[in-house]
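Problem 3 from the worked examples.
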Amino acid sequence: MLDEPWFWVSLIIISVFLCAWLFFAIYNSARYQILQIFGYLMLVLGLVFTIGEYPPLLYGNYISSVLAYSALILIIISVAMTRWRWVNRRGTERLNSPSNLMIFAIVRHPITLAMLFLGFAVIVLKNSILSNVLTTMALVFFLLSSFEKDIYQEKVYGYPHKVYSISVPRFNLIVGLVRSIIITRKEKKNIGKP
């Protein structure tokens, strides 16, 4: 894979994009974006470097594929539904409603969750100590970026973000899905009531 020209061209394009994004993140003093960039950088380095190889995990390719495709689906859904993010809402009424927020009513940081899935997919797929260390560092950077983003959004949006962060879990898809189903049922019951 490393000998293919398309791989290196893609790597150069990603590197240029990350450098430009890093410049704008530093210019805007957005710490959560800087942490995300370092996470992406460590993830790319984890894909490239394979030193200290060990035997593959049983069914590792299948587990990695499931995690990678789940990440891809989550990214596509999140990007398609960014228009409905909570920041476009006024006040706190129906703030965490799935009809308002779609995927953002289930988890607060779906793209970061997708990157965590992708990181675990790389750890399972690559049978290399160095690759796993770099990818683990990427996972730590992604987790830190989600905490920094919550702090940043609470400063910018205040009380509505506090209500949102209490009602919607950061990464737990199962709890978020159960809560959104309960809220949807309550909304359906209250449709005809004055």
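Problem 4, a separate protein:
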Amino acid sequence: MNKKEKKYLFTLGCLTLIAIMYQLMQPTPVDWSESYSSTDKKPFGAYILSEQLPVLFPNKEINENQFPIFEAPLNYDQKNWIFINTEFSLDQFETQLLMDEVNYGSHVFISARKMENSFADSLGFELNQKLPLINPSANSLDSLLKKPLNFVNPELKEPNGWNFPITLNEVYFSVFDTSRTVILGSDNRDNINFIKIEHGEGAFFLHTSPFLFTNYFLKNPEKYDYAFKALSYLPETDTYWDEYYKVGKLAYSSPFRFIVSKPNLRRAWFLALTGLILYLLFKSKRMQRAIPEIKPLSNTSIEFARTIGNLHLNKGSHKDLFEKKYSFFLDYLRTNLNIDTNKLTEETIKKVSQRSGIPEEQTKELFHRVELFSTKEAVTDKELQSITEQIDNFYKNSQR
């Protein structure tokens, strides 16, 4: 790396360090994104509510559901289901499964500002659609205009109601079947936000303001009891808290989506990507030097074998050369075929044939000739040439 490249890298490192220090010095903005997950401690998470479920349903089993309804434990025994999310929209198959569960005595509590498709059609209700307005740079919702929400039941009703931001509570029921619906709650203008729809031996409790069950309001001493009173309509029995139908679960379906969803991670990602592109641009200006051709090393073992062969031929010691070839042949059997060559029996010859893939008759003939030449006092030129060709053919045709 030359001095110019070092200068570029040093400058890039300093800029990166300055950017990181600037981000660390900035106040952490409030994350107003909705998740309603039991693991999230941000304002619109549901960590506090999830932790308080054993208090709401004492001595009862609290389960967490991580599956869609068609894979959930719907065994048609009496239990509670709690769904809190931005929206709750099931297809026809899932709706029928959930309605069958309620028909056998279960109770389902749903709080979402959007409920539609087959689920809404099957229960015969409609919601007006309004999106909440939240300033993403705000540190609090206290400055928002508020309106009171209250319950119809006198035992739960507060004289002045509970004041919640208007922009978070503008969704209400516009159409519902009055013959099977019980009104449980509304605002000061009689806009209905909480109803009960009986179905078989169980019931659906439908609420239009999921924000009221999040950490932001449950940590407020003046507002937390609204959520607990709403959930008090559920009987004290085993309860399933849903973690599958969550907006956060859908948003973070891939690592890249999770990175771009977090402001600091997103800035770090694009900063690193920009630095990499700049480095490649500067690096591309450097010309690649010519790479000298490196010739592969010659096979000296072959040259050595030829030299030794010529030496034996010149001296006429064909017997000695045969013994060396025979020794190399036995070493090949041990090394490549894993054959024990201490005793060359009929069983050994059979193993050599099986492992090399050479017919047994040819193998027997080769060993017979080798044994014959080993007993001779001298080996002629033609005999050496013949046995050498036979051994070389064995090497060539062997499958190992």
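Solution to problem 4. The longest strand covers residues 192-199. Residues 3-25 form the longest helix (23 residues).
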